[in-house]
Amino acid sequence: MKRFALFHGKRHPREMGAEEVSAFRSYLAVERSVSASTQNQAKSALLFLYKEVLQQDLPWLQKVVAAKVARRLPVVLTQHEVRA
After folding, report:
1. Which residue range is the domain that position 30 belongs to?
2. How many domains does the chain have?
3. Cβ contacts of residue 46 below 8 Å, gap of 6+?
4. Which part of the chain is the Core-binding (CB) domain (predicted)?
5. Quick count: other Cβ atoms within 10 Å of Cβ 38?
6. Contacts of 12 (CB under 8 A, 6+ apart)
7. Whole-angstrom Cα distance, residue 84 to residue 82?
8. Among 52, 67, 54, 44, CA closest to 16
């Protein structure tokens, strides 16, 4: 939440909306190059902030799309590669 507020010039979250949340998540993905799980954690933290702390029900925040986790294929080595 601290980074969210600092990113937007220390504005209070009640003054911000969907556009600011989207800009922050884009910043995390593009400029900070964080993983999808970190982006999703930020989304969950924002949901908690608005819903539980500020007690604001914001339907647009539920519609923010979660980042897709990259699938990693297992690396399979040949017997020769294992011996090397």
Report:
1. 2-83
2. 1
3. 1, 4, 21, 61
4. 1-54
5. 14
6. 5
7. 5
8. 54
In tens, the pLDDT along 40-79 reads: 888 888 888 888 888 877 666 666 656 666 677 778 888 8
Q: How far apart are CA 58 and CA 47, in angstroms?
A: 9
Q: 68: domain CATH number?
A: 1.10.150.130
Phi-psi region of 7 (alpha: psi -120 to 50; beta: other; left: phi over 0): alpha
Of the pLDDT bands very low, low, confident and very high (cuts 50, 70, 90), residue 26 is: confident
